[in-house]
Structure formats: structure tokens, C-alpha cells
# Entry
Amino acid sequence: KAGVTQTPRYLIKTRGQQVTLSCSPISGHRSVSWYQQTPGQGLQFLFEYFSETQRNKGNFPGRFSGRQFSNSRSEMNVSTLELGDSALYLCASSLANSGANVLTFGAGSRLTVL
Amino acid sequence: QKEVEQNSGPLSVPEGAIASLNCTYSDRGSQSFFWYRQYSGKSPELIMFIYSNGDKEDGRFTAQLNKASQYVSLLIRDSQPSDSATYLCAVNSGGSQGNLIFGKGTKLSVKP
# Structure
């Protein structure tokens, strides 16, 4: 069973550019969550999508956005990149059924902003 | 501001010893608790989750939850060098299920 797939794995951008990251969840998983991981702040929740709807959003500026498609694949976009956006962006999927809701993380997309 | 606190370490234990990792959380309404392991350069992987007060055991790992003290811990018995990693405590505080609040992690080093 394939895991959570994130693309691209590495990318370098310059300030002011925008970036789109992609996440394919585990087959059958309907919920996709995005996290930003930095050495200083650790893992921070960006947003969660379920059935193409944003279910929850973390405390990030509007430059960070996302969407989910009917096949549960998700993308996140960061516009007008800043140096501080350099981070590992992790996508996690889950079944989103009742009870235990275990998140399975992808390998991440490491973004460097120059 | 809901917070999860962990000692950043590093926590160093000899091979074969018990490693004890601790975590406190601020939101008394927190409902579910997770321990993830993250090797350097890799993504987090789930070790255990716990909902109810008390202990939950899975192989060499035991999670302990005390909601009155807002405290959750992870014990690793017979620690192995391969257990050397950063251990992340995560809490779901009633938000949507994909919204976990993570501590910054405790770095564990198991010395042969």
C-alpha cells in the first residue's frame, strides 16, 4: 500500500515568488493536513481538508492557502515568499473516521527561500 | 494559546536502559495524545496513541497518561541505538482530527 506522496521533495525559490506543493494521500484516506516544520517553531498546523472542504486552519497568514480535489489529493500554495517560509512542509493523511485518527506523514517538501 | 511542552534534551541513556520521555499540555479539554518518532532528515512516524488515563503498552513502548496532571509520558524499555531520534508529543485539543498541537520534541541518544 503506497504511503503519502509529496512532490517536489526539494525546491529553491527566491523572495516574492510563489510555490505550489502537492500531496497524494494514502488510498482511502479522506483527510489531508498540512504542517510546517522549522527548527525554531517545530511542527505547526497549517490547515486540514476533508471532502474538498477546509475543515480547520492554523495561525498562518493568508499567503498560505490550500485545496483538495475530489480524489483527495491536496495542494498548498504559498504566495509572495519570504525568507522565513523556508521550512519542511509535511502533509499527513488520515481516515478521518470516528475514534483514533492517526496521521500518517509524507516525506515532506523542503523549501528554501533565498 | 494551547501549548505542548517537552524537554528538548538531549536525553542520553545507555543501551538496554529505560528511556523516559515526558510531555505536559495546557488544554485541560485535550482528548487524544500521540507520540511520534522522527529520525534526522525523515518525517514523523507514529509510535503510539492514548486516550484514557493509565498505561498503554505496545512492545517495548509504554505510554502513560494522567489527565489530572495534564501529563503524558513515553517509556522505552531495553533502549537500542536505533531508538536514537527526536520524539514528538502531540495533542488533539478538540479541533478537527487532523489538527494536532506538537511539542518541539525531545532528542534521545542511546549509547552502545
